[in-house]
Amino acid sequence: MEQEKKGLSVPIILLIIAIPLLLVVLAVIGILAAIAIPAYQDYTVRAKVMEGMARAERAKSAIAEFYARTGHLPANAAIAGFDSSASGNVQSVTWDPEATGEASVESMGDIVVTMSPKISPNNASYTFYVSLVSIENGLPIWECNIGNAPRLEANSDGTLPRRYTPISCRPDPAR
Question: Edge-to-edge strands of the sheet including 110-115?
């Protein structure tokens, strides 16, 4: 008679080793995904907000050119000569010369940038402000955030959350 083998066979030993190893790999992948997916979503929203910042830059240039030609600020976006209509990820860009501290800054007017709801994961329409704080030597001085501007940090009223705010607009760029 043949002698029976005692102990576990090689495939069973490999299975005992492979299953816990596979579970560890899946756990690591799950942890990385839990961190990476929200970070990537924030990154994509910040990239879309930069489109709004580019539109605000064009509005700043148009207002500065209007001021250089006429010596006074324009009454609205059409007079200033910039496009305030929706395009891409931007719902509107408007010039509010009557603004006085809309973005918690004593200002001579605000460029109000409203982003399209499609940019955010929760379909919120975010707004941010670029304020004209002074005119020095004929040149407008702009600020998109001074101090702890509540409109840039809270989003209960539809304003841009801090995590989406461009670094140049944050009260503390070092974070």
Answer: 90-96, 110-115, 127-136, 139-143
pTM above 0.85, yes or no: no
The rounded distance, in Å, linking the Cα atoms of 87 and 123 is: 17
Distance, CA of 45 to CA of 51 (rounded, Å): 10
Are 107 and 131 in contact by the 8 Å Cβ rule? The answer is yes
37-88 pLDDT, tens digit per residue, is 888 988 888 888 889 899 999 999 999 999 989 888 898 888 888 888 888 8
Burial of 111 (0-12, 13-18, 19+ CB in 10 A): buried
Give the chain's domain count.
1
22 belongs to a structural domain: yes
